[in-house]
Design a protein that fits this description.
The structure is a single chain. With 274 residues, the chain is an alpha/beta fold. The protein has one domain: TIM Barrel (Alpha-Beta Barrel). The protein is 37% helix and 16% strand. The strands form two sheets. Strands 1-2-3-4-5-6-7 form a seven-stranded parallel β-sheet, covered by helices on one side. A two-stranded antiparallel sheet has the order 8-9. The protein starts with 6 loop residues before the first strand and ends with a helix.
Length: 274
């Protein structure tokens, strides 16, 4: 078996109320697919019960930390198990997230904009799809500029709001302005393989947006966004091929909030059953 090189950088736990399986089961799949490590990035608690139906409560945060620590101990010497977080961004939440992120040493922090969450929609959706798409990319840039995140998760998720109304070429100038701002921050962006399971079946982001990201030198982290153990590492080979086709030479991951880069051919050769 080749030397393991990559991390699964985006996966969840049952605490988010819409994932299944134990952290040990996720780790076993990562081990079987020859990953060097796995970073759990479950949905963070948010203030005032914001979208509480799809995330852990603040009172469960210590349980989350303990859950990951237990798996880390069980897999010590075989798989590097890390504590991360997927934190939702919207204007005004920054002080809450800053305090939350400081409560425990996090290895990788994903920033997400979940346009589909009811509480977010109530704040920002005006009934006009194109405006909502524009706002998504404005918030994406703001999330990078906040300095709170290592990587921006599934960074064209808004295309699944209404696939019939998604026109990439119409959005290209909006996306370009957002990516220019993101590139200036040095924050990475994710290639999320779970997009293949959505209404518009392509990874997040699309090859077109991925090429624009490459033109601006934005690093990319791959994540499966696994909500069930068998999806750990799912689609990584395809994702690496897409990165290469977009012009990338390296793929990235984060350890202790520091970015590490691996040459794509070496990364591809290191994986098993992905």
């Amino acid at each position: 078996m080749p030397t393991p090189l990559l991390y699964e950088s985006h996966c969840h736990t049952t605490l988010c109320k819409h994932a299944f399986g134990t952290t040990d089961e996720y780790a076993e799949v990562a081990l079987g697919r020859n990953f060097k490590g796995i970073t759990f990035t479950c949905h963070c608690p948010l203030p005032n019960g914001f979208s509480a139906n799809v995330r852990m409560t603040l009172e469960q945060y210590d349980e989350y930390i303990a859950m990951v620590a237990s798996t880390r101990e069980k897999f010590a010497g075989r798989l590097d198990v890390r504590l991360g977080l997927e934190s939702d961004f919207y204007p005004g939440v920054e002080p809450w997230l800053e305090e939350l992120h400081a409560r425990a040493p996090l290895s990788h922090v994903l920033g997400s904009i979940h346009y589909q969450v009811g509480d977010y929609r109530r704040l920002f959706y005006t009934g006009e799809i194109f405006s909502y798409q524009n706002l998504y990319y404005e918030h994406l840039a703001q999330s990078a500029e906040s300095g709170l995140f290592d990587t921006l998760a599934h960074p064209d998720l808004i295309k699944n709001e209404s696939p019939a109304d998604w026109n990439f070429e119409q959005m290209r100038p909006v996306i370009a302005r957002s990516l220019d701002r993101i590139a200036a921050t040095g924050v990475a962006m994710e290639l999320n393989t779970s997009g293949m399971l959505k209404v518009l079946p392509e990874m997040n982001p699309s090859p077109s947006q991925l090429a624009m990201m490459c033109e601006r030198g934005i690093p990319v982290v791959i994540g499966a966004d696994a909500h069930v153990p068998h999806r750990v590492g799912d689609g990584y080979i395809t994702a690496l091929n897409l990165l290469e086709q977009a012009g990338y030479k390296e793929v990235s991951f984060f350890i202790d909030r520091e970015r590490h880069d691996v040459a794509i051919p070496a990364a591809r050769a290191s994986l098993a059953n992905c």
